[in-house]
Fold this sequence. Notes:
Strand content of chain A: under 5%
Number of helices of chain A: 5
Helix content of chain A: over 70%
Largest sheet of chain B: none
Oligomer: heterodimer
Number of strands of chain A: 0
Number of helices of chain B: 5
Structural class of chain A: mainly alpha
Distance between the termini of chain A: 55 Å
Amino acid sequence: xxxxxxxxxxxxxxxxxxxxxxxxxxxxxxxxxxxxxxxxxxxxxxxxxxxxxxxxxxxxxxxxxxxxxxxxxxxxxxxxxxxxxxxxxxxxxxxxxxxxxxxxxxxx
Amino acid sequence: xxxxxxxxxxxxxxxxxxxxxxxxxxxxxxxxxxxxxxxxxxxxxxxxxxxxxxxxxxxxxxxxxxxxxxxxxxxxxxxxxxxxxxxxxxxxxxxxxxxxxxxxxxxxxxxxxxxxxxxxxxxxxxxxxxxxxxxxxxxxxxxxxxxxxxxxxxxxxxxxxxxxxxxxxxxxxxxxxxxxxx
Lengths: 108, 182
């Protein structure tokens, strides 16, 4: 048991990634502010990138596949976040608030 | 040198705290600040996984560009002091139990499947592809893609601005027509 705690391996990183994923998912479910939801999705992405890199480090000797996939994941997520923030800015300009429930009520 | 065990545990705890404070910080600027800290800590963790290039890339792209972008936008709309708003208590309890259930299922999956089938699948994939992909040969095309994406972002931005101006001009015209007809 103590050996498992002090020998850092694939499992430790996977559990860290799972915890980050759960926190991100929880944030998406409970937040009412749209910007917080976007940031929670970013937390989920970070957990995914950790997963890729860990598998690359422990299963792939050359590390190339994991690095390339991670770069694309990070790039796409950053651009997606920027586009989401721009859309939120437009929503704020028309509605004067970023509350998801208020926006839902207004649509109804 | 910090031992690997200490490095991993300290960074993990810091990452979990900053991720939790993104969703639970009482003010918005604290939430954005914790996002920046999370990006920094995860970049440090990548260094431990022999991925220095990714760490630098994430720090530059997400840590500096994205953080500054969100911060400036919040400052522009004056919502840096926005309070934390959550859904109702019942919804929080339901979502917490759903997330816990999902985590337990994932842990069970790791425990039962990891040493057998999943590990073999990943070994198979990496053995099949690792001799084909050369990271050095992909750097130039990757940078070309980054430049193309940046150029397209600028073009879309200019297009959106021109649309905004057209809308403004149209609305001004309609207001003028209304006043003239009155």
